[in-house]
Design a protein that fits this description.
single chain; 644 residues; alpha/beta; five-stranded parallel sheet; flat
């Protein structure tokens, strides 16, 4: 039996890897190397894919720690909200959205590589060849020194690609020449970026960093991007931002060869939502994080040893610190069956058990009652967390949970259809843009994909994960995951009480049930709100294009800007609370029609490519087409349109 001090010292870590590193737990042995970590460290995999809380950031933090001696350097590119907004808005006339955003990512990778080379050349190689000196001059001339806010520097880089970078450091006046050439923005930006990338590649070659043995002294530079979910939304520009990142990473890895490795950590739901022509080229680069019960046991043991500083045997946590059994089930199995198979959930549940026993009840040992009590609170947490995890992709998710409240955790397709029928009208009214997905089959597919429901196959119940098939149409028996049953009051397999169709429909409208959700915060934006955002974004896109039309007469620029600002003023009035006075879809279509009329007027007035207005006219026409699509409820596809 554990003594008091040992239980008090026991801690299974933080929910996020960054604080785990700060606390030192990961570095003291609390990290469990897995296949994803080994694939990343070897450089054989470029995409580490996993659900929220599956350990992606832990791998990222561990690679930074292990990088000394293995890599020439490690750089973590921070996609904070400022950076994400800049990339989402980045556009180039003549290029589709995915390709334009690939260019800004490629530029970021090139700048990080250039800054690394400037510092690395003398320290690791004892010399600075002319190619490295050229990179130093380029960084200085374009404001890309290590000082200053990353978001500010990115904004400046975006403007440079859209207009003209200073490229004199490479011995040519390419920036000026390209800016004055009669080329589209996309072509100009691509040619400027080629000059920069060639300069970086030349410096790697001159130093020998791209040699088969890494120059005989070091490994590659590791560039990592993590936590894109912080700046992602299920809309065209966000998906284009991620697709552009994938395209840029593959291009960068190919261009710089052995000198650079690129590693991307992506949430599975984000990656799986992408649809683009070159997606099949990334299959060999993918590695998905999966966790088994045994792996979670090993993780718990490693973290218990790291925190308590004791030589615990593999059996000790489950017979000494914890009770041997809970409700007739072996304790580790009981715990890990009641959390989704990922480290964050396991860590939270284990810590909650420890805190319930040690802090709340003052015990020197975790009892069965402590585990059961912690399990009820943990279930409440996880039901709320699941809705928040998929708030962007499936904003209706929490409105489906009442269909399973206070009933058995086993439900057939026929029974679910009866329950859903009573709530379908309310759901379609609340989420018209998702009406096609809000069918019985669509609901089953979503709830299975997010891990809420499992499907009965033979004698087993299978939950999503790994390479399991999605729920098939002929499969008729589904089980609520044990993680969520206590929160739903669905703790027995079947409930013989009559299901309250009317009450369930009312709870669906409210999006929850007593004690489960705070409806005053964290709710998904309404469709009206999104349409207002689309209107505002279109106006800003046209204004930005107009300001870049340097060949267009100033008077013409001012007149166009004045007309678009009038539209923007009305849009801002809508967003400040006047939406009830308008049918937003009609307003979007009216604005699109106005944009078409404006484009026709500009062309009729002779404002075309010969006057420098051609790019503006095309942007106005593109925004008109995009608004019509948005009014039709098209959200979340990656598309190939050039969005702001």
């Amino acid at each position: 039996m554990a003594d008091g001090p040992l239980l008090a010292q026991l801690h299974f870590g933080r929910e996020d890897a960054e604080r785990d590193v700060q606390d030192g737990l990961l570095l003291r042995g609390g990290f469990l190397p897995n296949a994803a970590y080994r694939g990343a460290l070897s450089g054989r995999k470029m995409l580490i894919i996993g659900r929220k809380g599956s350990g992606k950031s832990a791998i990222c933090m561990q690679l930074k720690s292990d990088g000394v001696g293995h890599y020439a350097g490690t750089e973590l590119i921070p996609p904070d909200e400022t950076v994400g907004e800049e990339i989402r808005r980045f556009e180039l006339q003549g290029l589709p959205g995915d390709s334009a955003k690939a260019l800004i990512w490629r530029y970021l990778f090139a700048v990080y590589a250039a800054r690394h080379l400037v510092a690395h050349a003398k320290g690791a190689h004892g010399r600075r060849p002319d190619s490295v000196k050229a990179l130093a001059r380029f960084l200085k001339q374009n404001g890309e020194s290590a000082d200053g806010r990353f978001g500010d520097r990115l904004a400046q880089a975006a403007r440079g690609l859209q207009t003209s970078l200073s490229l004199e450091a490479f011995g040519i006046k390419a920036g000026l020449d390209l800016a004055q050439a009669p080329l589209s923005e996309g072509v100009r930006a691509t040619r400027q970026l080629d000059v920069v990338e060639r300069g970086v590649a030349r410096a790697f070659a001159d130093l020998g960093c791209d040699a088969p043995d890494g120059g005989g002294a070091h490994g590659p530079l590791l560039l990592m991007v993590d936590q894109l979910e912080l700046v992602w939304s299920a809309e065209t520009d966000s998906n284009s931002m991620v697709i552009g990142l994938l395209l840029a990473a593959k291009h960068t890895a190919s261009l710089y060869g052995r000198a650079v490795s690129v590693l991307l950590f992506l949430r599975a739901d984000i990656y799986d939502s992408l649809h683009f022509g070159e997606g099949d080229k990334f299959r060999g680069d993918e590695l998905r994080i999966t966790w088994t019960e045994q792996a979670l046991r090993d993780l718990a043991l490693a973290r218990a040893r790291a925190s308590a500083g004791a030589e615990l045997t593999p059996e000790a946590p489950w017979g000494d610190l914890f009770p041997a059994e809970v409700e007739g089930e072996e304790t580790a199995t009981y715990l890990f069956r009641r959390c989704l198979p990922r480290p964050r959930d396991a860590i939270q549940f284990l810590n909650l058990c420890q805190e319930t026993a040690s802090l709340i009840h003052g015990r020197d040992r975790i009892t069965e009652a402590d585990v059961v009590q912690a399990g009820r609170q943990f279930s409440d947490w996880k039901l709320k967390d699941l809705a928040l995890e998929y708030l962007v992709a499936h904003p209706f998710l929490k409105h489906l949970f009442p269909l399973f409240q206070n009933t058995g955790y086993v439900v057939t397709r026929a029974v679910l259809a009866t329950r859903f029928e009573a709530a379908a009208e309310s759901l379609h009214r609340l989420f018209p843009a998702y009406a096609d997905a809000l069918t019985v089959t669509g609901v089953v597919d979503v709830l299975y994909a997010v891990g809420f429901l499992g499907v009965r196959r033979g004698n087993d119940v299978v939950f999503a994960g790994g390479d399991d098939l999605p729920a098939q149409f002929h499969e008729t028996e589904f089980h609520v995951h044990p993680c969520f049953r206590a929160a739903l009051g669905a703790t027995s397999a079947i409930d013989l009480r009559h299901f309250e169709i009317g009450a369930a429909a009312g709870r669906v409208i409210q999006g929850g049930f007593p004690g489960s959700f705070d409806t005053s915060s964290g709710s998904a934006p309404t469709r009206d709100h999104r349409l207002v955002q689309e209107l505002r974004r279109s106006c800003h896109s046209i204004l930005a294009q107009t300001s870049r039309a340097v060949s267009l007469a100033q008077g013409a620029q001012d007149e166009i800007a004045q007309q678009i600002n009038r539209v923007l003023d009305e849009v801002n009035g809508l967003s400040s609370g006047a939406t009830s006075a308008y049918d937003l879809e009609d307003r979007v279509l009216t604005t699109a029609h106005y944009f078409d009329t404006l484009a026709a007027q500009l062309l009729a007035g002779g404002l075309d490519d010969t006057t420098g207005a051609g790019d503006v006219v095309r942007r106005v026409q593109e925004e008109a087409r995009r608004l019509r699509r948005q009014a039709g409820g098209s959200y979340g596809s990656s598309g190939n349109s050039s969005g702001p």
